[in-house]
Amino acid sequence: MQKPFALKKYFSIGRVFRNEAVGWTHLVEFHQIEGLVCDRGLTLCDLIGVLHDFYSHLGMTNLKFKPAYNPYTEPNKEIFSYHEGFKKWVEVGNSGMLQPIGLPENVYSVGPFP
């Protein structure tokens, strides 16, 4: 007999290396925070709520979300925060709904975020 599905939450912080040229907006090495939540009936609204909560703890309360493309998630959102010092919107993350392949019926995953 299979156990019923229970809420799952995963979180990681680590260094990332990318094989790209260094530019004024990014380096070859950086630190990344990722989170993943799996539960029944999750929606994009749930994801946006989690992101607002997460970024508010970092002092970022003026956020906007822009549709984006990511091959692993659909729908996807890039996250921007208004930077008072620069007087412009700065991209601070990417997020989306992971495809529910291999999950029980009506179980969805939101992430990666930020």
Structure description:
By secondary structure, the chain is mainly beta. The chain has one domain (8-113): BirA Bifunctional Protein, domain 2 (2-Layer Sandwich), CATH 3.30.930.10. It has one helix at residues 44-57; strands spanning 8-17, 29-40, 63-67, 73-83, 88-98, 107-113. Strands 1-2-6-5-4-3 form a six-stranded antiparallel β-sheet, covered by helices on one side. The N and C termini lie far apart (36 Å). The mean pLDDT is 86.
CATH topology: BirA Bifunctional Protein, domain 2
Largest sheet, spatial ordering of strands: 1-2-6-5-4-3
CATH architecture: 2-Layer Sandwich
Q: Give the strand content.
A: over 45%
* CATH superfamily label: Bira Bifunctional Protein, Domain 2
Secondary structure layout plus pairing:
Layout: E1 8-17, E2 29-40, H1 44-57, E3 63-67, E4 73-83, E5 88-98, E6 107-113
Antiparallel strand pairs: 1-2, 2-6, 3-4, 4-5, 5-6
What's this entry about, in short?
One of its GO terms (biological process) is phenylalanyl-tRNA aminoacylation. Its EC number is 6.1.1.20. The protein has one domain: Bira Bifunctional Protein, Domain 2 (BirA Bifunctional Protein, domain 2), CATH 3.30.930.10.
Provide keyphrases for this structure:
6 strands; 6-stranded antiparallel beta sheet; BirA Bifunctional Protein, domain 2; 1 helix; globular; mainly beta
